[in-house]
UniProtKB/TrEMBL annotation, chains A, B:
GO terms for molecular function: metal ion binding; transketolase activity. GO terms for cellular component: cytosol. This is Transketolase. Pfam families: Transket_pyr, Transketolase_C_1, Transketolase_N. Coiled coil: none annotated. Residues 359-531 form the Transketolase-like pyrimidine-binding domain. It catalyses: D-sedoheptulose 7-phosphate + D-glyceraldehyde 3-phosphate = aldehydo-D-ribose 5-phosphate + D-xylulose 5-phosphate. It comes from Leptothoe spongobia TAU-MAC 1115.
Length: 665, 665
């Protein structure tokens, strides 16, 4: 097709395609197939529907766009560049996938303004989209007034076959259907090709019917390669259905335009090569050199700058009006957007004295959550169907449900992985909402890919994990974490905190709430734990501290969580034998490692080499704290099914054994 | 209802219910609700349909039963006891959830003969069921003859709302529909109650429609509490549809029979208490004391013993005939069932010499898999849509597909978690099949819950994980493992092996294939690696070994995988400077820890305290090997998107840096 006969729209679409083709070719690495096939839907969406301000990527009321099929990131970089985001210049596209570029191999919100969430691991993005839409629905219900709308945006997601095969997407989409999130619109790039070839070899289900079963509004664009009008009409129809999310299946051809590679898995994840690119230029009628965008094409895309500025200006006016009419709500709203926490919020944290009742930390967690609920109104969250076991309900609020989006208790169902990914979306809505989510600690395994993405994408999610050791008892080894805490400590940029009692629980939340770019995972006990002499809210932020000490101590007992009281009891006995003992509570490795050398030395002096660590978990990584002359009481295999007390005894978590092992040093 | 008017069937069902009620009450812990509601479907299934031999739980051709809703394990223990399994005596039921009992809090195949797979973590069991059905379909296609059927059993699964909410079940069920596994029959205990209350709060999708979308045959029994005939007819109908798996939605009442607690979440996971139990006895007309089973009820259940013996005898005859007519096939079949590997299978492992071409270990893995494919005919497996990147296709076989079940290449689609759980099912079919599965190493996170269950349930699955470090390059931090190897080393009973070259790859498979009760996870490189002087197939089984040494060495460089060659290159340079250096290749911690003290000392002598570990991953756990005077070149945060060579350089994985850090010791 000669370029002269092409509509400007087609040229715009080809501009996206060739930025992708040429950037991948220059990098000799990347995924051209999806951008080539999905460019038409993306263009229609960004050109006709998406509201955003390229010059202020964080404008609150923008529509959110998520490329769940993150490998096709050149699609997103092309759109960002063409519509005028400063984060992606043409040089950045030429530097695609190179050291230090803003155009990494998969979209990363922390590298590239304009990218909302980090995608690539398949299925995550659509779940993030559910979270973004939940955040919007919640804020709209809380802040909008009949005469003044502050919160009103859509969440658009492009997802592929891979996303739809991943179970995590099913979890979140089932919940999205249940919740009736009408402003979530997913475009399914139905190109029937995955890496191993045709989806015929493993994925022949009826995806549309499945989404209907979830309660979604489902549409189909049969020719997603050429029928721009059908794409636009489908998005319009989607917007009209306000009580259901919409899935638009858009049938496309992967690598559209490549004469020899279109509709094959060969075009999915590799550069096309010079010869095929030449043929593709010919076939698509694109006569421009790599990275050259004709003026009229650029002008069309750059309309977004003015449109965006005026959309934001209009919204700013609405905000000004809102501020006048609803000063209190406006103050809260603007404080939340600013990312500032309420003044003195931490004063709400419960405190405990040594005489107080022994309580499970999952219950002191409940008390803390409920104390924070009024003090930190941006806190929203819930459990994967274990609200009563994880103790995560905020009593001052009802359930976030269709018709009750203003409520703050989220009901995730038995969907741990989707829950984590949804919370990432809520956190990265960047409207100040602080999401928490909960399950049994051992089921962190189910949601680990989402936890990793919280850490990588700087989403300050709170993970409230209860039943944190073999001491949970009868449920047995399938439910007993032994390696779980260690495996979570392995994740960079994640605080893993195992509080010893009520004060440390408050301390854990104090860190977690304040920590907006590092997620926090808190491990709470099922069993009751005493309120400890010497425990401290503020010391938790230091990761480890001396909770009990003798002058001239030459032995350190180091415990975490439920084992701190055991260490303290053992210390008493050792002291009765004339020993001089220090007990260190070490709720969080990562925070301790962040302290200066002097503080670390003050807690764990090099000179005291007799050290016994007591933790009801595996030994891995503790060596650096107990050292060459130290020892640890740890669990070396899986747990067992029996009452918790019996298990702790059988596994050596007794005062007698701690004393014996300490004396053996 | 007075007992006199009750049918024997109803009494049998009540016997199951009260064993569950009374065992949970005695333990003051457990889940009575599901057994009370699902007892009718379970009774009909075990009484009229299931073929099994209580006196030989491992009889090969038995129907497989999986309680995917594993918390309802008292249902399964009651059935095992009543039908005459020796593993569950009445004393064992009285010891439910106690230390050392065969009746742990969730069903565990390694504790209780008659339990096929370990369930409890929701959604896993139905996926295991898909694996069991795939194993049956595969063996039937390979071994059955027109005149002689050896392999012919059903796989029955009871799953609940929780299982159906978990994404992992969707993954496996979509694949089961695609594969048309006609002998998989799932009974969905539709009791519309989960722990947090009615499923109305989070799970309102149309499950039947979703399974239809997957390509399943779907039926509905509206009154699963009373209509035994409808249950039986549904199972009959399910058996008649041979080209699709069947999902029978059986609508039931959780805690059926409890006047005050039925149909509430209160009966899900707690003992009913004496008063409510008395009322339930009255309401169900059960006049027997706890743990007392009337003779006629017992006699009815125990018919299973004779039926089972005669079913097995009949099958033994078929096997005898088969042996005569098809001696070669019978020999293979019986060898597989025995769990013996073929004689001299390890001779097929490829060997490499230092002069040989540098190849990525994912490619030496491919060569090994293909060398083993003919030598180990029980090897079956595949990738989660990354066959060409993970290099996991066996060239001598086609794809396991509907109409081609005899083939050994499995096509899992982008379904890592379901893949792992399916492989657990294949392994625990206990027919000698050795399953492997593959994805990028970082996506071990997606399937971690299944990997943990491989380890816990002693399923000797091979995990073939490629792209094992930041060196994979451009795909960036979402795809780059940094903490992944460490987090996997944390799992008990799992060999994590990171081979350095072709010989070590063969060595890894040599361990993995032979290791039928410990799963093995192998981490392979994307990038080419040289064939190393001194590398050894057999030494891999020792976990670590001296690959290069100087007499009088006072410095040890310890590497794994791709960093071993770096250590060897650095050693050369250090030697040129006059240093005496030992290089240790340490592909597997767990195997090294299993060696005797003398061997360990011979590799890492205590006297040599200058030790530098080089691994492209986090430091966690390495301290015990490099010690107080040693050091490590590790990765402390997430990776980056750039060409792999550049990344390795930026992160300090260069000869210069290894030399400098070694000299600094």
């Amino acid at each position: 097709m000669a370029v002269a006969t092409q509509s400007l729209e087609t040229q715009c679409i080809n501009a996206i395609r060739f930025l992708a083709i040429d950037a991948v070719e220059k990098a000799k690495s990347g995924h051209p197939g999806l951008p080539m096939g999905a460019a038409p839907m993306a263009f229609v969406l960004w050109d006709q529907f998406m509201r955003f301000n390229p010059k202020n990527p964080q404008w609150f009321n923008r529509d959110r766009f998520v490329l769940s099929a993150g490998h096709g990131c050149m699609l997103q970089y092309a759109l960002l560049h063409l519509t005028g985001y400063d984060s992606v210049k043409i040089e950045d596209i030429k530097n695609f996938r190179q050291w230090g570029a803003t155009t990494p191999g998969h979209p990363e919100n922390f590298e590239t303004p304009g990218v909302e969430v980090t995608t690539g691991p398949l299925g995550q993005g659509i779940c993030n989209g559910v979270g973004l839409a939940m955040a919007e629905a919640h804020l709209a219900a809380r802040f909008n007034k009949p005469d003044c709308t502050l919160v009103d945006h859509y969440t658009y997601v492009i997802l592929g076959d891979g996303c739809n095969m991943e179970g995590v997407s099913g979890e979140a989409c089932s919940l999205a259907g249940h919740l009736g999130l009408g402003k979530l619109i997913a475009l399914y790039d139905d190109n029937h090709i995955s890496i191993d070839g045709s989806t015929d070899i493993s994925f022949t289900e009826d995806v549309s019917k499945r989404f209907e079963a979830y309660g979604w509004h489902v549409l189909h664009v049969k020719d997603g390669n050429n029928d721009l009008d059908a794409i636009a009409k489908a998005i319009e129809a989607a917007k009209k259905v306000t009580d259901k999310p919409t899935m638009i299946k858009v049938t496309t051809t992967i690598g559209y335009g490549s004469p020899n590679m279109a509709d094959t898995s060969g075009v999915h994840g590799a550069a096309l090569g010079d010869a095929e690119i030449a043929l593709t230029r010919e076939s698509l009628g694109w006569e421009h050199a790599p990275f050259v965008i004709p003026d009229d094409v650029m002008a069309r895309f750059r309309q977004a700058v003015e449109k965006g500025a005026s959309a934001e200006a209009e919204w700013n006016q609405a905000l000004a009006t809102y501020r006048t009419k609803y000063a209190k709500e406006a103050a809260l709203f603007e404080r939340m957007l600013s990312g500032e926490l309420p003044a003195n919020w931490a004063d709400a944290l419960p405190t405990y004295a040594p005489g107080d009742k022994a309580i499970a930390t999952r219950k002191t967690s409940e008390a803390t959550l409920n104390a924070l609920a009024p003090a930190v109104p941006e806190l929203v969250g819930g459990s994967a169907d274990l609200a009563k076991s994880n103790n995560t309900l905020m009593k001052i609020s009802g359930d976030f449900q269709k018709g009750g989006y203003e409520n703050r208790n989220l009901r995730f169902g038995v969907r741990e992985h989707g829950m984590g990914a949804i919370c990432n979306g809520i956190a990265l809505h960047n409207s100040g909402l602080i999401p928490y989510c909960a399950t049994f600690l051992v089921f962190a395994d189910y949601m680990r890919a989402a936890i990793r993405l919280s850490a990588l994408s700087e989403a300050g999610v709170l993970y409230v994990m209860t039943h944190d050791s073999i001491a949970l008892g009868e449920d047995g080894p399938t439910h007993q974490p032994v390696e779980t805490v260690a495996s979570l400590r392995a994740i960079p940029n994640l605080y893993v905190i195992r509080p010893a009692d009520g004060n440390e629980t408050s301390g854990a939340y104090k860190v977690a709430i304040a920590s907006r770019k590092t997620p926090t995972l808190m491990a709470f006990s099922r069993q009751n734990l005493p309120q400890l002499e010497g425990s401290s809210i503020d010391a938790v932020a230091k990761g480890a501290y001396v909770i009990s000490d003798d002058a001239g101590a030459d032995l350190i007992l180091i415990g975490t969580g439920s084992e701190v009281s055991l260490c303290l009891d053992a210390a008493k006995k050792l002291r009765a034998e004339g020993k001089k003992v220090r007990v260190v509570s070490m709720p969080c490795w990562e925070l301790f490692e962040a302290q200066d050398a002097a503080y670390k030395e003050s807690v764990l002096p090099k000179a005291i080499t007799k050290r016994l660590v007591v933790e009801a978990g595996i030994e891995m990584g503790w060596g650096k704290y107990y050292g060459a002359d130290g020892d640890m009481i740890s669990v070396s295999g899986f747990g067992a099914s029996a009452p918790g007390g019996r298990i702790m005894q059988e596994f050596g978590y007794t005062v007698e054994n701690v004393v014996a092992r300490a004396n053996a040093l």
